[in-house]
Specification:
By secondary structure, the chain is α/β, with parallel strands linked by helices. The protein is built from 19 helices and 20 strands. Helix content is 36%, strand content 15%.
Length: 543
């Protein structure tokens, strides 16, 4: 896959550097994650000469998979993203780039998310409000009625939000605004309640609306994946419910790497280049204009534009010293990234057998198998305690995590009759008191022990494991504080305010430089929209 090497130029730090009057590339994309690759594909499809430079030895970034457990060389591991939700909400990128022709396929999970209570009860988040309400009705008729009323508000918010999420906030977007306005006019009687829901803490809305501990815990465990649920404005997290019910949950057949590999194949087909093992050291800027990228090897690639599909802080600090005003550097340095003091942990366990939620399945009257689902484990108290403990540098002893067996959906991801388990504790301390080197092993074992109570056999069938916490994400993925969505999700960090004031539009302090990763609108998730938006900005710039 490695492209032919471009012509050499002296490093920009050398005095008297002279760039060509005709740069070799129209665009250089830094980072071969799915957003960077998508951006490059869109530009190459317009006939632009594009190269992607990637520091690692393969494409994918957070959208990757591989055989990463030495004791289990045939168990496929997803070291970061696994599920396809946002790509189902925003399916344009794989359709427009014809990724199916290059091997990308997805399958729907049914059911997608299932909550498991410690007492053995379970609650399925269905593909409609009515299906989920029927589950809730087993515990509380009043809660079921309240849930249907809640979903009327949530669906109205989804109808308002989706058109604006899909477009570049720097443009007029009259069509998207008109769609949103029509929804608002039609549902104007709901406006006070809708604003109250979105601007309030998600926790408050859950506890005031629902009475049964299973309903309360299920919703807290679901929405907590987006961050602490006690903060003002976290009501926007209820959008997760609308996305689940309207679009469902999918998985990439063959693993997430197939998405990134399909993008790479499409880029190559379009005439684009990819350079692996080629870390960028400097975004070369002269006179307020980008001129190319200097690689760590010293080689300079000349270009009319640069798309930094990396964390915005990493990108701006890479620009030639003095080319970016201090205020912008400070602004992006201080943009929130796991600012609440917590971060997920990721544990993969290779198994010699298969696991299932047998205790919880036995208490269901419908005989539903939960083996293929994402299982939400915890209680209201656990969700609150995990975030509180993480903020002060401690590890909660109450289990709050998501768990699933990717091989249950796609048996090719493990040897026949075996599983690979994906454990995702939502809120671990960003900076534990003792340091992660001291607590990584015992915390990993604690999480496995906790999960075994819900997936019996996880401990006894273990072949090998792999665990990463915030500093591991930060190092491997080059993201400050290990924040996998680059900039924290919130109402104050959307649109033109993402990643920060003055840095979310189609122009940056250096002409020809563009952000193209999860740090811009609409944010994190596997959908390619940031890369798609960045490509549109580059196209307008190059005209």
């Amino acid at each position: 896959m490695e492209a032919s090497r471009a012509r050499l130029s002296p490093p920009s730090s050398f005095p008297g550097i002279c760039m060509s009057t005709t740069p070799l590339y129209d665009a250089i994309v830094i980072g071969a994650g799915h957003n960077g690759l998508a951006s490059a594909c869109y530009l190459a499809a317009e006939g632009r000469k594009v190269i992607v430079v990637e520091s690692l030895g393969k494409v994918g970034g957070m959208a990757s998979s591989g055989y990463l457990i030495p004791e289990a060389p045939n168990h496929l591991v997803h070291p970061c993203a696994l599920d396809l939700m946002s790509l189902r909400v925003h399916p344009m990128m794989p359709q427009e780039l014809q990724l199916e022709r290059h091997g990308f396929r997805q399958t729907e999970m049914e059911p997608g998310y299932v909550y498991l209570h410690p007492d053995g009860n379970s609650l399925v988040f269905g593909r409609s409000a009515e299906q989920t309400a029927a589950e809730i009705r087993r515990f509380s008729t009043a809660d079921a009625t309240e849930f249907l009323a809640l979903m009327q508000l949530v669906n109205t918010f989804i109808d308002l939000a989706i058109p604006m999420m899909r477009v570049d906030p720097a443009q007029m977007n009259l069509g998207a605004k008109w769609q949103a306005l029509k929804v608002l006019i039609k549902n104007r009687h709901l406006r006070p309640e809708l604003m109250g829901l979105m601007k309030s803490p998600a926790y408050t809305s859950i506890m005031e609306r629902f009475e049964h501990p299973v309903t309360q815990s299920a919703l807290c465990c679901l929405l907590g994946a987006a961050g602490p649920i006690t903060g003002e404005g976290t009501g926007v997290y209820f959008a997760l419910l609308g996305f689940i019910q309207r679009f469902g949950l999918g998985r990439a057949v063959g693993g997430m790497q197939t998405l990134s590999d399909a993008l790479a194949a499409r880029l190559t087909e379009l005439g684009g280049e990819i350079r692996l093992n080629a870390p960028a050291a400097e975004i070369v800027a002269r006179g307020g204009q980008t001129q190319g990228v200097r690689l760590a090897s010293g080689e300079v690639l000349e270009s009319r534009s640069v798309v930094a599909a990396v964390h915005p802080k990493i990108a701006l600090n890479m620009v030639t010293p003095g080319a970016i005003e201090r205020r912008y550097l400070t602004r992006v340095d201080l943009a929130p990234a796991n600012a609440h003091g917590g971060s997920p942990m990721k544990i993969d366990v290779a198994l010699r057998g298969q696991v299932r939620a047998s205790r919880h399945e036995a208490l269901r009257a419908d005989g539903l198998s939960l083996r293929k689902s994402v299982l939400l484990i915890g209680t209201v108290e656990a969700v609150l305690d995990n975030f509180k403990c993480a903020a002060r540098g401690d590890v909660s002893r109450l289990p709050y995590l998501w768990a699933t067996a990717p091989s249950a959906v796609d048996p090719t991801q493990a040897p026949e009759g075996q599983d690979i388990a994906y454990l995702y504790p939502i809120a671990m301390p960003l900076e534990p008191r003792e340091g992660w080197d001291a607590i990584r092993a015992p915390v990993t074992q604690m999480v496995i022990d906790q999960t075994d109570a819900y997936l019996p056999g996880l401990k006894s069938q273990e072949i090998g494991r792999r665990a990463e916490a915030a500093p591991d994400f930060a190092s491997r993925l080059n993201v400050p504080n290990g924040c996998v969505v680059h900039i924290d999700t919130g109402a104050s960090r959307t649109g033109l305010m993402r990643p920060a004031f003055g840095l979310g539009g189609d122009t940056l302090p250096v002409k020809g430089l563009f952000f193209g990763g999860a740090g811009i609108h609409p944010g994190g998730g596997i959908n390619g929209l940031p890369g798609r938006i960045a490509a549109g900005r580059v196209k307008r710039y190059l005209k």
